[in-house]
Amino acid sequence: MTYSLTPDTNSARPQRVRFLRSLRRHPLGALALGLLLLLAAGAILADLLAPYDPTATDLGNSLSGPTGSHLLGTDALGRDLLSRLLFGARVSLTGTAQAVATVIAVGVPIGLLAGYLGGWVDRVAGGIIDVLLAVPGIVMLLVIVAIFGNNESVAMIALGVLGAPGMARVVRGSTIAVRNELYIKAARVSGLTTRHVLVNHVLPRVSGPIVVRASLFAGVALLVETGLGFLGFGAQPPDPSWGNMVADASQFVAIAPWMLVPSGATIALSILSFGLLGDAIRDSTAGRARGADRVRRKVAGDAKEPAATPAQPATETPDDSDALLRVRGLTVSVPAATGQADIISDVTLEIRAGETVGLVGESGCGKSMTGRAILGLLPQPVAVTGGRILFDGQDITKLGPRQLQRLRGAQIALISQEPVASLDPVFTVGHQLKEVLLRHQPGSRREIARAAVALLRDVNLREPERVMRSYPHQLSGGMAQRVAIAMALAGRPRLLVADEPTTALDVTVQAEILGLLRRLQRQTGMAVLIISHDWGVIADVCERAYVMYAGQVVEQAPVLDLFDGPRHPYSAGLLGCMPGRAARGDLLPAIGGRVPQPGSWPTGCHFSPRCPIARDDCTRDPVALNETAAGHASRCLYPLLVDEKVFSHDAR
Amino acid sequence: MTKLIARRLAISVPLLFIVPFLTFVMATLAPGDPARTILGDDFTPEAYQALRAELGLDKSLFAQYADWLRGVVQGDLGTSPVTGLSVSGEIISRVGVTASLVLLTTVVATLIGVGLGVVSALRAGWLAKAVDVISLVGFSFPSFWVGLVLVALFAVGLGWFPATGFVPIDVSPRAWALALVLPITALAVHAIAMVAKQTRDAMLDTLGREYILALRARGIPERSIIFRHALRNAAIPVSTVVGLVFISLLDGTVLVESVFAMPGLGGLVVDATHRHEIPVIQGIVLTFTVVVVLVNLFVDVLYGWLNPKARVS
């Protein structure tokens, strides 16, 4: 019996519940609370407010619809429905309150103790909770009604007991989260009694989830209370309850369907209000729920291909390059409060057939987004807003979803940072590999299976048949990355984008995977773009590299030139951070500050706020990428001042 | 997998004994007893004692429970003190109605709920809103009230379906189906809401995973990504909710069978409650508990089958 309108997060949050203030930001929740208070007031003041005695009959006016004298109409005996609703609210709301009070009185202590003490208390409570959760609720209530006679209070208290496991589970979860926090530990160590810590320190912190749960349970309790009333239990005729008013109406469905409306609408609105109130309180105490929802929805937007934007760079340089991939002035943006924020700005790079190129930078500088843009796989709402990505002369930014799909895997493939996470957990490796193979080459089942085994052998997996039968969670990271590489190779792509292919792996496995990539690159002649923050990886496999910082390419050069003489202070700083390159006995230098967020890039050189050699003119205008030597370019106004010691402690 | 099932059995099997025992404990706590109920207001102490002995009420609580258990093993759930009919006979003659209702509603709610959930996960916009609205309606409107409104509209108003009753499928499949449409609809609104919501959340979660990106990067068609990979992964949490839906329908059927005057277990338990027929209620509680245990076992097996992490270690 757990109904919730939005996903339950069960999380304890540090704020104390300040309902009234927080409800201001939730108009629906405030409205719901208002309605419930109004109903409660109506029930309390029924004697004053009701226009008629709820049991007074008026046979001359039976089964009437709404009229001037009977605003909500009358029933078969001419009794006023509005008056019966007001008096019926006493029964129904009292029953609900009894059930809610019980659920709190029973569920909260069990949950607190189980969560706080843990151990055998938790296990025993867990057992009881599991047993009670498996009991069919309404039938159990009927047992109680049958045994104890028609006593509504007993039934509703029993309902509270049946609902207590759900409450206990929520409280237990929240308590466990709170228990390990420092101030609770401190309170425990300082010798306060368990009782004191629970009541004064833990309880206030878990009160948010308790109130949410209680509000949602109130809806359930009212549903059950009216259900019992409908079945003829609880208040007996002629006394009204909301449930027996529906039962009265059910006798006259054929001739007076209106009678269903006042009672049904009141019940539904009340239950709805309890639900909305619970959601509103949850949103304000555990602000995550909705937010998480929104983020997920955003991510799910991936399902749609990003709209191909007809973007042209303002100044087109003559382009006679014959490279396999030519990225020209690529700008990628995300919608922001003020227009849009660029994530990648004016990136130009190229990769020739068979070449291995590195893309280096700190996290958050736009390397991975560049990689995803090349595959046409930007996450919504991120989109290409300028520039072109020419693959074999074809502009990828202008392709439709179908064309992109045909390109991916067959022409351009991707391997990513988390090898295990990049495999579907519910299918075997063989199943997934065969699906990819079948997508890219026709063949009989036997041929495809043979090709799959051959591919796995190609990536140095020793027992390919066994790997085929394995599920992703049964593979080590290194094995999973080999499988992912095999799947990327299945379509014989001409370009492989490897996004941090070794970051998540052990050092020894890293070397093996890099060696594998090198060998495969030689054998197949495909081009490889390696995205990494690790100079070691770049030095190991790449011929040329691009260094990215805050959405821009700041330096490009053959790897050897880059290592020997960086011409941008950021590259120099990154190189200086490599442990192997620091002079023996020196402290490792670090670049102070951090990468600025998209949308808050400086006007001039993006690196100038962190740069030790920055001058006034660096911050004035955007800096262009200028060639400093053949094949070597830097986005620095003073490339010749750069040397490797630029960040060392004794440099200045 | 075996571990999962063993754990479930360790919880469920005792449940089959504990729940009926609880009803015995409560029966002894209650004011009055079945002998008094049968005899009415006017009786002699001798007749009362004799009837108590006959019903086994003079024995200890545990002895009564043991007697009852012995009967259960032999398929005998006792007799109704009011009608004198065999409880197991009554239950068997009525179980078909409730089973039709609950099973079909589960199937309908799963198909529609999964469909709505998938579509609303793929397209934000009005369909996602529609699922929200259905959830609100399903959550707020009691099934018995929805049933009555359906009767007013489609049975009384349009005359498309019968307002009440049940026809066994072997008598007339057509009449059987027609009689079930409105009760299933009344029960399904809430069930659909639960399934649709879980499906949407699970699909959104799955579609945001790394392997979906990887599948796209491998050129796998969108159709396969959504219906083979995402839906298959989302099915894991959805299967758990379908189990919960089934169990909540056992409660719902008590009310809906009353609305539509269907001769099922729900109607029987309501009548028995009005007449204080404890053995009948105990029999039905046992039946429902067995069903809950079986459904939970089935869901566990399904979960293991859908989720290789639970199946193979």
Automatic annotation (TrEMBL), chain A:
Residues 292-305 have a biased composition (Basic and acidic residues). InterPro entries: AAA+_ATPase (IPR003593), ABC_Ni/Peptide_Import (IPR050388), ABC_transporter-like_ATP-bd (IPR003439), ABC_transporter-like_CS (IPR017871), MetI-like (IPR000515), MetI-like_sf (IPR035906), Oligopep_ABC_C (IPR013563), OppC_N (IPR025966). Residues 292-321 are annotated as: Disordered. It is a multi-pass membrane protein; Peripheral membrane protein. Residues 306-316 have a biased composition (Low complexity). PROSITE patterns: ABC_TM1, ABC_TRANSPORTER_1, ABC_TRANSPORTER_2. Residues 325-575 form the ABC transporter domain. Keywords: ATP-binding, Cell membrane, Membrane, Nucleotide-binding, Transmembrane, Transmembrane helix, Transport. Residues 89-278 form the ABC transmembrane type-1 domain. This is Dipeptide/oligopeptide/nickel ABC transporter permease/ATP-binding protein.
From TrEMBL, chain B:
The keyword Membrane applies. Gene3D superfamilies: MetI-like. It is found in: Cell membrane. Residues 95-303 form the ABC transmembrane type-1 domain. The keyword Cell membrane applies. The chain crosses the membrane at residues 9-30, 101-122, 134-163, 175-196, 234-260, 280-306. It comes from the Bacteria. It is a multi-pass membrane protein. This is ABC transporter permease.
